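tokens incoming
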């Protein structure tokens, strides 16, 4: 078990990549925190993990609201006594071409995907600096490296996440905290399951491997970066994308 007794927090962990990751962390021996926006969704994953004999806490908070984030961080520290790993996974999309994008669409994505990462990163960093150890993993995207049609707002947040990652790595390294980012490519989730087959085939065709990624592929990358195997890795962006951008 690579993460035995570590306290791991994954935002947006009630579905998709987040859920796969919180389950993987628990399997690797971590005490885990399921973080979502509704009590029902959080409780469902918490109960699933408890049934599997895992040590788990659930928190409900909107990452874009600093007061809710700080309250959640206090609850986690009070319960477990530490925060060893934070994965800033929560994110949304609201796609539109530049000339058609509304202010509401832009602001909503910025609030969750960029300010939310800032809020959670700041809250966890204070705890980690005090304990002189910790790992923060921010979820970017291949879109945050190369851009994407119709995603001005999303691309801006994922570029921004990379900038925050490198800045935090410089600021927090001497406090014993490592900070890295993961940039997923096309991953099979509940969202892609609703897409037409021809769109999925086109996505597969862009990868030299000819396949789409699974949530477990990203979860495995998180575990590596969170573990002592990556103790000399900080400030990096790990692309897990099947070579889609080659």
């Amino acid at each position: 078990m690579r993460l035995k007794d570590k306290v791991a927090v994954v935002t947006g962990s009630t579905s998709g990549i987040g859920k796969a990751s919180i389950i993987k962390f628990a399997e690797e021996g971590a005490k885990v925190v399921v973080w979502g926006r509704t009590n029902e969704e959080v409780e469902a994953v918490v109960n699933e993990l408890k049934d599997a004999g895992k040590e788990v806490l659930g928190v409900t908070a909107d990452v874009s609201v600093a007061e809710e984030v700080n309250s959640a961080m206090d609850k986690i520290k009070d319960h477990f006594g530490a925060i060893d790993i934070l994965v800033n996974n929560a994110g949304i999309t609201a796609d539109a071409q530049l000339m058609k994008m509304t202010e509401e669409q832009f602001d909503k994505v910025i609030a969750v995907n960029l300010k939310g990462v800032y809020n959670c990163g700041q809250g966890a960093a204070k705890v980690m600096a005090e304990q002189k150890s910790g790992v923060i993993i921010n979820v970017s995207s291949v879109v945050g490296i190369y851009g994407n049609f119709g995603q001005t707002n999303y691309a801006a947040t994922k570029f921004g996440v990379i900038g925050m990652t490198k800045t935090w790595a410089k600021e927090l390294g001497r406090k014993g905290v490592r900070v890295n980012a993961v940039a997923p490519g096309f991953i099979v989730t509940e969202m892609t399951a609703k897409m037409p087959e021809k769109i999925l085939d086109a996505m597969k065709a862009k990868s030299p491997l000819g396949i789409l990624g699974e949530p477990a592929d990203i979860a495995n990358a998180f575990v590596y970066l969170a573990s002592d195997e990556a103790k000399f890795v900080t400030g990096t962006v790990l692309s897990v994308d099947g070579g889609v951008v080659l």
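note: The longest strand covers residues 177-184.
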